[in-house]
Amino acid sequence: MASVVQWISGTRPRTLPNSIAPVLVGAGAAQHIGAFRLPWALLALLVSVSLQVGVNYANDYSDGIRGTDDQRVGPFRLVGSGAATPSSVRLAAFVALGVAAVAGLVLVVLSGHWWMIAFGAVCILAAWFYTGGKRPYGYMGLGELAVFIFFGPAAVLGTLYVLSGEVTGIGIGAAIAVGCFSTAVMVGNSLRDIPTDVVAGKRTLAVVLGDKDTRRFYLALVAVPFLIALGMAVRVPFALLGFLALPVLLPAVRRVASGKKGRELIPVLQFTGLAMLTWSVLVTVALWLD
Length: 290
Hints:
The protein has 14 helices and no strands. The protein starts with a helix and ends with a helix. By secondary structure, the protein is mainly alpha-helical. The protein has helices at residues 4-10, 17-32, 38-66, 78-81, 86-111, 116-129, 143-151, 153-164, 169-192, 194-200, 205-209, 211-232, 246-257, 266-289. The protein has a single domain (14-289), classed as Orthogonal Bundle (Farnesyl Diphosphate Synthase), CATH 1.10.600.
């Protein structure tokens, strides 16, 4: 039976900035137009984090029963390690996704944006079928695109819209930036797993691109948020604060650019996630100060 610490590890805490950052920036964009509502923002955060935990447990379950995690180099996995039964991990995924559904429904009722029920349903289905089902899209090289969409435009603009009822240019720029950061987190993870994913038949974008081009793709992705911060500074000068996230990102960039492999790439996930969260906090502060 898995311990409490192992269950917490199974949530993949290093990936949680992917769900926190877009809500922060979306709420900041709402504040920028005078539409921030703290209770609604907290509900949006609960939805986002619950979805992230749900997809992480679902991924653990699906990859575990397929044998993808049998020779895993990266962080601990509940099913792959044998610490928890597949059925218990699947139940944990359903509970987390259920929490997201309930919190999302409350948010829809409060805001009156009823069409967002369909939006939430799509998010939950995307979370499960990333590695679940007979034809998981995460095994078809589409995982990175889904991460960009759901942790970028969907999460940032979804938060902005539910709080304010509108979408702004600042929000769109922030959504693209956070989407690129989130995708970079996944690309860094997939770069490390290329050898084991090839053996397991998991066709990620990194497997398709190969080692060299995946590294180039990662470096391009992490450059985008800083270019967007520079563009945002035309309207929001304090957006230049986002550049203070560069020192947090540099350890990851060095590992990727220098050709590190295997376990030496594990910190890339952590540093990229922290850089994303730092950038998002700083840009959110900028939007509040403007």
